[in-house]
Amino acid sequence: TGVRGYKTAAVDMKATLASDSQADIGPKIRSDFDFSKVRTDLNAINAALDEDTQRGTDRIVRAILQDITELEVTQKQKPGVARSETRLSNVNKKLDKLEKSFDDYLAFAN
């Protein structure tokens, strides 16, 4: 998938929610953002960077992993309960934050 693929996945999830505010994106989060795979992919790129750059990217890697965890928690819905506009807004904010974190990381990696 690669880091660009992760960013694309976040954009795709926003598009899914734009077309269906009640879409269950939980399975997509777990498949597209497999925590250990994301960490491994980010760390593989990080290892190739110089130490000064790694100081900046380490912070972004931690933020990305935290964003994924927060996204999964925020998007959860109780069965039979519709996602409110407030919850939808919060999920979209998490996806925006995750997308920006991937952009920030890619800026270092390019």
Task: Tell me what you see in this structure.
This protein is mainly alpha-helical and 110 residues long. The protein has helices spanning 2-19, 26-32, 35-47, 51-75, 85-109. The radius of gyration is 15 Å and the shape is elongated. It starts with a helix and ends with a helix. The model has no long low-confidence stretch (mean pLDDT 92).
Summarize the structure.
With 110 residues, the protein is an all-alpha fold. 80% of the residues lie in helices and 0% in strands. It is elongated, with a radius of gyration of 15 Å.
Order of helices and strands: HHHHH
DSSP summary, beta strand count: 0
Structural class: mainly alpha
Using only C-alpha atoms, the radius of gyration works out to 15 Å
Fold blueprint:
Layout: H1 2-19, H2 26-32, H3 35-47, H4 51-75, H5 85-109
Main attributes of the structure:
single chain; elongated; mainly alpha; 110 residues
